[in-house]
Amino acid sequence: MDAKLAETLLDMATGQGGDGDGDDPEQQQEEELDEEQTIVEEYKLWRKNCKYMYSFVSETALTWPSLSVQFFKGNTFINKTKDDKYSVARNLLLTTHSSGEDEDFIKIASMQLPRSIIDSKIKLTSNELETVNSRLKISKKIKQNIEVNKIRINPIDNRKFASINANGEVYVYETDEKMNILKEHSLKHHSENGFGLSWDPNNEYSLITGSEDKSIAIWDYSKQSTPIRVYGDEHSNYVNDVRFSYLKKGIFGSVGEDSQFILGDNDKIHMKVNMNKVMNSLTFSPFSENLIMFGSEDSNNYIYDLRKMDEQLHVLVGHNDSITNVEWDPFHENIVASSSMDRRVVLWDLNKIGEEQSQEESEDGVPELLMMHGGHTGGVNDFAFNPETPWLLASCSDDNIVHVWAAKEDVVQPKPIDLPIGVL
What is the pTM of this model? Predict the structure, then answer.
């Protein structure tokens, strides 16, 4: 990362807070300054340790924060930034959150990734890596009438993507190889702010949405601009997230402010479970049809077996603020990840649950806490795994920064230590 960006981040982190409404303004201001100083120190420490944890890190400061981020697969678009000897061009999908102070857009960004990230057999020198321009550049802007809360790329056809905005309006965009919009589908149902959005990984034209109007809508946008099914009475409060199952065709899950988990399909509701806590996000395992993970408002993540929802399999403890998103690693059945308003993205290794730890190791967290990405200075709004490259992720946060980062293999997949026979 360059010195100018680092200076920008430090300036943002030390910005003065508001006056607040507390009874002791001086104490409140002192606490805010202490928190800001802590964020600055943590960011400095993260920068210092980047070389030990990451094989690649890119930081780009945006004008406005993005509430959502996604990777396109390689060769989805023709980029002005071309592949070269040391790098390949890739694209991301972003949004703007201007709070009404500016125009809002969906943006397609381009960047260069080192070839060594795409192919681990390729080794680049430090001088060769310096030729790679990994800063995001905006290649396409799609004007919106209000801020977009979530965007998701169609996993079957990456030239299609969907959005849901602060009015609950849902749009599907179809593009060509030059990023031109060929068709824009406006899907009408929700009447309030929407955060739930998921494509069906088994049906190119099917998606599901959820909103603060308490309803869940299932769509086939190739047939009609209204839902093919609406569940309006299952949740008694805001719907926070909706997802389709990877392995059970047509099955979806939803969670909301009413602490309910709903499992259903286009025909009926199969299960309704009181989770006894607000869940903000959920994800199905792409490897096991019965494993599901929830991210909670209480800062923890919960692993369940759908066949036995009366008892959690495990609680992942490591965040200290509300969870914003959870995802299952598309390459490793034992790896899950979560983001939080605590400014962290955490990678978890389910295979390490229950491993013995030394006292020193336990001070760093539970054994299944594989890696903590701590480079953001604001709450993390969203993150995504790259669908083609293992251990490559993108994350966006309230500090206007987008990170694209790859963990070092010896951090996430440490090699066993060879000991002399006499030691064993």
Answer: 0.90
